[in-house]
Amino acid sequence: MRPRFVADPVRVRTPATSANLGPGFDSLGLALSLYDEVTARVVPSGCRITVTGEGAGELPEGEEHLLIRAMRATFEVLGGQPPGLEVDCVNRIPQARGLGSSSSAIVAGVQLARTLVANGGREVDAGAALRIAAAIEGHPDNVAPCLLGGFTIAWTDASGARAVSLRPAGEIEPTVFVPRERGLTATARAALPASVPHADAAHSAGRAALLAHALTRDPALLFPATEDRLHQHYRAVGMPATADLVSALRAAGVAAVVSGAGPAVLALSAPPADLDPGMEWAVHRLSVDVAGAVAVRGRLGHAERDPVAAGRKS
Ligand SMILES: Nc1ncnc2c1ncn2[C@@H]1O[C@H](COP(=O)(O)OP(=O)(O)OP(=O)(O)O)[C@@H](O)[C@H]1O
Ligand SMILES: N[C@@H](CCO)C(=O)O
């Protein structure tokens, strides 16, 4: 049956995310306290999207926008498209740096579409929302923490993407170092070999398992737990400044990794006060976001949290 749409605007706040976390290539991710905010409403006709902040003037302003594509895919599952859409994006997540900007747009679209339907889009539960978002993004390691918040372990089975969200230990103090230059995930993926030595795969399995323990229970083990042999050194040649900063931080005992596909760097413990990363890096001291993509209904400032749209588990 064709869905009934709400007349009020709806708003969603989506966190930046850092995927991989070292050894957890394509599976582990962390939600961070840096947010895009998007407001959407159903209108009688057309499709208008405005972007301020990151990506303004560069991103498409119609159906080709990633967020609109995600909304359309979700409305399709919910039974039909609204007559028209008006969307306003305030983007704060730097784009193409390894902080999950594309997942933020996709998850925002899925959550907005659910919340614009009068019944809260209950046919699309949190698990289905994750599957829709991961199918558009291509892998689940950014969309899972963006949707669910916290530290996520994502995997894919015959039904599609799945994930669990764990609450990280309170001592985790993420710092991200964001360079001016961009790097596309597609380019970074092309730098990876088709296969890796068995010893490296075994090393990564052990470190990724240790990382789940270190992040949630014993941050003292974060340094060994963030050692990676699957992707970072293959990509280093394409992002030498990133590789140098990760090496400098690790030489100082900081559990630092390439954030997502790079070129940003994530440190999971406080960098030394005297570290000078250089002028080209914007440094953000953040916290872990545990709420995920929170969608609300109603006008700004008068909205209440919509429990249907703020899924926590898949
Ligand atoms: N808010 C947004 N709205 C629409 N499209 C976006 C948005 N953010 C990113 N994109 C698109 O996604 C591209 C970046 O995606 P990409 O996967 O390469 O990097 P990322 O998501 O920032 O980092 P990573 O996936 O490594 O964490 C941008 O160049 C742009 O085309
Ligand atoms: N796991 C992905 C994250 C970026 O989307 C990669 O490193 O290519």
From TrEMBL:
GO terms for molecular function: homoserine kinase activity. It is found in: Cytoplasm. Keywords: Amino-acid biosynthesis, ATP-binding, Cytoplasm, Kinase, Nucleotide-binding, Threonine biosynthesis, Transferase. Residues 66-150 form the GHMP kinase N-terminal domain. Its EC number is 2.7.1.39. ATP binds at residues 94-104. InterPro entries: GHMP_kinase_C_dom (IPR013750), GHMP_kinase_C_sf (IPR036554), GHMP_kinase_N_dom (IPR006204), GHMP_knse_ATP-bd_CS (IPR006203), Homoserine_kinase (IPR000870), Ribosomal_Su5_D2-typ_SF (IPR020568), Ribsml_uS5_D2-typ_fold_subgr (IPR014721). It catalyses: L-homoserine + ATP = O-phospho-L-homoserine + ADP + H(+). It is an enzyme of class 2 (transferase). Pfam families: GHMP_kinases_C, GHMP_kinases_N. Belongs to the GHMP kinase family. Homoserine kinase subfamily. Catalyzes the ATP-dependent phosphorylation of L-homoserine to L-homoserine phosphate. HAMAP family: Homoser_kinase. NCBIfam families: thrB. This is Homoserine kinase. The gene is thrB.
